[in-house]
Predict the structure.
Amino acid sequence: MSLSIEPLPAALLSKELFRSIYDHSPVGMGICDLHGRYVAVNAALCEFLGYTEDELLQRTFADVTHPGDVDKNIHLRQALIESSCDAFQIEKRYLHKNGNVLWAKTVVSVIHDVQQRPILTVGQMMSIDNLKASEQSLKRSRKSLANAQRLAQVGDWDWN
């Protein structure tokens, strides 16, 4: 007996594929309207920020962005919406619901309607907390070494 499988229509396959990728991605994804309010968020973003989906849908991207990064993010997003650029990348800090500061590499792209007018932005966030912690540890080690060399009146050199 042979099993016949009918191919799915392209439109349905496209929607199902997008929904599956969006829902199961380990990368945090948030879709915002032009005012910056979240209109859709995936589970990875909720977990990253510590909010439920309903809680995030009551917020804007600026609400969960560290105050020191808000202005730059708003400027880049506005330039994206007003230009022919497709996307921008930024390393930025987010605020977890519990108050902790989280680092992420964020890529934001714009979605246009059929008349090519911007209607939504899509942000994808990948945690870089471990990278930032390693960078800070390396900076502290270098500062400590420089201080020890200064106190001991010694230096170092590289052979070239």
